[in-house]
Here is the input.
Amino acid sequence: MAQRRLKHILQELTPLPESVGTLKLGNITYEVPAALTPSRLPRSKDLLDINDAVNRDNLHFLLQKHLLGQDVFLVSQPGPYARRLALTFASLINAEYEYIALHRDVGETELKQIRKGGNLIYVDSPAVSAVKHGRLLILEGIEKAERGIMPVLNNLLENREMNLDDGTHIIHPQRYAQLEASNSISVGGGHNFVPAHKNFRVIAIAAPVPPYPGYPLDPPFRSRFQSRFVDPVGSLTALRVAALQSTPLNSLYTKLRDLILSTQLASESRHALEAISHSSLPPFPQTALVKLGGLIAAFPPPATGLTSSQLARLLLTIHPSLVYASFQAWALLSRQTEEAGLGALESPSMSQDEDIGLMGYRVSDIKRLDETSAEVTFAHSGAPPVVLRVPAGTKTLRPFPFAGDLEFYPTRRFLGLLTCFMQAHALGWDISLIPPAIPSTASTSTSTLVKVFGQVLGYEQEVIHMYKELGGRELVMRRKIQDGGATTWEPSPLIEGAWAGQLVHLSGLDVIGSTAGSVARLIQDREIELWENKRILAEGELSLTHPSFRIISTASKSLPLKDWLRDEHANMFFPIPSQPMSREEELDILLATGCPRPIVESLLSFAEKYRQSMSDDNVLKNRKLGTRSLVRIARRLARFPQDDDLHAIISRSLLAEFLPTVEKINLDTLLAEVKIEPKPPLLNADPVVKEKALIFSASKPLADDTFQVSIPMFKPSQDVDGVVSHVPHMDHFYDNSLQSGLMRDLAIDLELLGEHVVLLGNQGVGKNKIVDRLCQLLRRPREYIQLHRDTTVNQLMFTTSLEAGILQYTDSPLLRAITYGRVIIIDEADKAPEHVVAIFRSLAGQGELTLSDGRRVRPVRERESDIVVHPNFRLVLLANRPGYRECSIVWPFALASHTRTAFLGNHFLQVLGENFSAHSVNNPDQASERMLLQQLAPEVDEDTILRLVGAFHDLRHGYDTGVLNYPYSLRGETEANIKRVSELINLIRHMRAYPQDSLGDALRNIFDFDIYKPETIDKLDEILEHHGLQVPHLGLDAARKATKKKIKDIEFEPSKTDLGQPKEGKHDDKEHSGGNTYAGGTGGRDTAGMGGRGGYKRLWKGGDIKQVPEALKDNVPNHIKEKAREMAREELKRRLEELDMSFSEAKAYGTILTATQAHMLSLYNLLEHLAAKEEERVWLKRQTDGELDDTRLTEGLTGEATVYKRRGMEKPELGRPQIKPKRIRFIFDLSGSMYRFQYDGRLQRSMETAVMLMETFEKLSKKEKYTWDIYGHSGEAPDIPLVLLDKPPTELRDRCKVVEKMYMIPQYAFAGDYTVEAIEKGVTEVAKYDAGRGFRVGNTADIPTVLRSILSTMVDR
Here is the structure.
């Protein structure tokens, strides 16, 4: 009792916070208390104007809820308005606040308590600090947090209760008072209860889902709040621009403002908060008016107005998603600008006679003012110059205008983009350079622009390379282990840059998805929360953001723009659409390499045609041809003019050998159009080491001239340890012309041109050994890493171990190669995740990496801890052939083409970009392979070797064309157990060692893998027999060779032409011509047959078809035609009702099934792989069980539980479409012509294709991944159902009925054509279905690549 009385007295003596004034807002009066911790008060320079009507109304609502003790949920479009509204409210009532930015990596520790140091001290999170001290808690990005995270706060929000990790318990203040009153809690009694402060409030902020991407609200979490919809129109106007208060009403700003607001209202009037239609003009981002107003105020437009292209670039800047918007959206916007008196919009691309700086300005002068600022002059041809003071770095400014010997070309395009950068910088915005939406263009000078921009303003530059594993917390801070094993926090490079006033380049920001939003507050307000309740502010006496600090973000170009260029990104940055080089600029760059002008002209002409041929559909199959690739080609031609086969060099650069056949033909056509013709391949001699050089000799066929390439040997003094221990060694290597030429090309790229290379080919073709052989000849040390699907970025950098409580890092082979200047082979590069492959892109392109332990890889040393890239360092990436493998199946429309099925790797070539010189590795030609085998086994008969080489060449060709499913590639062992060569070598070694064994016995060593694939065995037997190799011991059946009689129409003039009533006719086994008695004849009348007239159905019993003249067919009376139609309909109805499966039908169906089994396997593998790809398992981080995650071992030292990883299904990125079943409709031609002309096999192929489809879909393990149906069309109707959407034929009898229907319907169908209507109806039906993606199949041009790869190349038997 005494203790309780003492505590009560102390509370009475504690003075209440004094009032600093009285706030009157509408009809509410509020006494504003003084702050107990002034450092936690809002100090933002971007608070909202409280005199604005929209802001005042929102603030009034917040004050109402605050006085009622209720938490608020602000539903707002992405942008800074809602956050600034909450901070303005906190400033208005003088309330301290805490802030949490939610993202996909936020866990329970970020919402409760975080451990620190070796003593395991708990530090309260902002949420716990807010509830203990009565502060306002702002939670932004609710829609980004995973659904399992927010329930952590449910009890805190509803009951003001939470159990903390340090053993204390937050309870409701009233409950705490009750416990005190009942003497359950005593002063100094060691209890663990902490009262929630009565002034604790929460303001949550989220974008509505839909229309914006994110997770829907959890109902229990939602019920804790009072909601407030933030009007998008109000927020657009309330983010005020003070400089525009006196803007004339007829100004450019007023007209564009009205356009922006009307676009917002129009989008709402149609869909409200429903999904925004992609076919309409999307609403402008929340900061559009702020940017527009700032631009017009600082850079007044000329009196003559903006040109149409200048206006287009201005609109793309404030609304960057227009870059990938539909043509209809752009046309709608153009019409609106025209109606507003601004003129129609043209393409925003650069014209040669104008500057592309915003509003038509260009930078004319830059000079230093003081240590942290510079003066920039912007000139304009039609307006007075603008002089602005801008932040600058502390280094010496690079002279501007540029003069002297430059490492880049200061073209009008480049200076225009630099002007855009400078304009955004002058307005105080961070910059985002948006790549072109066109799949393939010339260079946009991204890296050069960023570097030069920093240099002319004297900035110290920091590059941070993004990768997918990077979490939101790692962007801001990272744990560091001190010498004693204790942990502490240290700032990330981004935060260090903010303190030091650096220019920070966020390279590849698109790959981290919505996690980028975790630093939105730093970008927009220059404020962010740090560790242990520290905070960076824009103004004040605490930790401040340097006024010169700027961020430039660039994209990896490995993701479509629509996947990441959304409102959130547009609001964070000042977007600047990039501009590719013009032809003239590219021409100057290529001529500077020393390459002859005629070759450069041809090269550029081809590049332009090639880029124009690229589309979103084939960009994944064709390699891009950018300026960097052209420069690489030009440098090589300038260095070795005698090796002038431009056709071969371009084909190698584009990996033409691996292109699908159609794309390969298109490529050859483009080359021929610019008169780049193929030349005979060079004859390459074996490489020879002479003195201090490796010599490669080559000659042209039928020519006497020979040229040599001399590659200097590696100097042992440059890497003594590496030469001793890391030079590859092999006892046997059988040289041939093809591989010698490849080694020469690799040596030129690696040693003379300083390029990094990527080597592609089928598995087992000897990629490793060719590189090892080259390194052996050059005495070049090399390192080796093999990647796999679970490879992480950290594993590429170092291995981690825990010794005596202290984490130890051991440099990986990659870091050793970088440090000592070695060649490193990255094997199976295409198997690694794409974000891991992206690391090599930045390393090869810029020589830069940022390690998770704080160190950096840089071309030159800028800091003491930097790892400098050795000039001898080279990357050699090895990967399987890209993307597709060719198949051979004929589509029933008899329009054959070749495509490729997916290979089991990622699209890593698109991720790598053009930073690597690409080479392909092929199997040796037959002559080289024959020579190699004769060297290996001289005892084996030469004729046998010749036949075996030919047979295996055909086997590999069978794999390339899809007939066989195994490449029979170069894989095996020599006597030294070192060199991997072909299975054919293993066969020859067996024949040499055991000559008493038959050839069949030896071949079984290779072909027994296929014993349960009879169609493969048949094909193998056919190929071997073709080469005169009889192998009865393989147990193969005799090869069956089906022949088809090609029947020609024979015109027949009947002696009698009178018509009776349509009838069936008599049946016999004889051939009949003319007459009207027997069924199955040709050229007759009235009866069922072929080539005649007046009958009600077609019936063919074999033999030549005698065709009556068309005039006689047309001269059939209408009443007879109608009678025939009626009889056909009745007969068809009766036959369909009676259809059942008999023995003969089962036998017929089995015949069709056997004919399609080989292709059925290919289709099954493809569809099964597509389904499996969607369910591919990945490493899930921040788990409480599983394997230790080496990236979170430091957190493990502090006692955190979520330091494990385990395999599981990857969660889709926010905004990515949900994986739904693929909707497919197959449409078959069942018109009368299919029966009439069936002698060419078209109807048979259609039935075989239908059987292949039905049987394959029935065998799939993931049937739910596909929803499909089959329809036909004839002269009678456009939609004849064969297989219904919800009733797949699960029984063999049902599938047989489908085939019977396909055979009978053409037999009874009358003339007519519903092809177009059938396709239109199919497209409409597929579009109605709510699926992940619809496959609309009308003809081969409409079939998506993945299915066309099977259906378009079925072998014509």
